[in-house]
Specification:
The protein is 34% helix and 23% strand. By secondary structure, it is α+β, with helices and mostly antiparallel strands. The chain has a five-stranded antiparallel β-sheet with strand order 4-3-2-1-5, sandwiched between helices. Bound molecules: zinc ion. Zinc ion binds next to strand 4 and helix 3.
Length: 137
């Protein structure tokens, strides 16, 4: 397989992830919209793109060192990141949170990523569940 088709396959997998993990809704009604995207395919929305780029640019200087939310691997810099998880409140989307997934986990088991995302987001909005939402850009 050529590099080009490897990349195309990886992008296709990323798009499936993006559709599968795009909403996190708590029973209390507080909702986060989440995006799990390829590190090279940040959403065009200015808030999300800026938050993602700021987070990626700061990885090399981050203290404590930031880690993959699935396997806990430390990120030396943006080259270690395969996917980026961006979240913002469904209402008043002026703030966004950013987390990273390493290349191996991003290419791996979606269920493992979903468990890690629910654990992470459960610290912000308690009792929520992930649900699929179609958000296109
Ligand atoms: Zn990982």
């Amino acid at each position: 397989m050529s590099n080009h088709s490897n990349r195309a396959a990886r992008r296709s997998a990323a798009k499936q992830h993006r559709v599968a993990i795009s909403g996190y809704r708590a029973r209390a009604g507080r909702t986060l919209i989440t995006y799990l995207v390829d590190v090279d395919d940040l959403p065009p929305a200015p808030l999300l793109r800026a938050a993602g780029e700021f987070w990626l640019d700061g990885l090399a200087r981050a203290s404590p060192q930031r880690r993959c939310i699935v396997c806990d691997m430390p990120f030396a810099d943006r080259r270690d990141v395969g996917g980026v998880l961006l979240s913002h409140p469904a209402r008043a989307a002026r703030l966004a949170s950013v987390s990273g997934v390493c290349h191996a986990c991003f290419a791996g088991d979606l269920a493992a990523i979903e468990r890690a995302v629910e654990k992470l987001l459960g610290q912000i909005v308690i009792g929520g569940v992930l649900e699929s939402m179609h958000i296109e850009w």
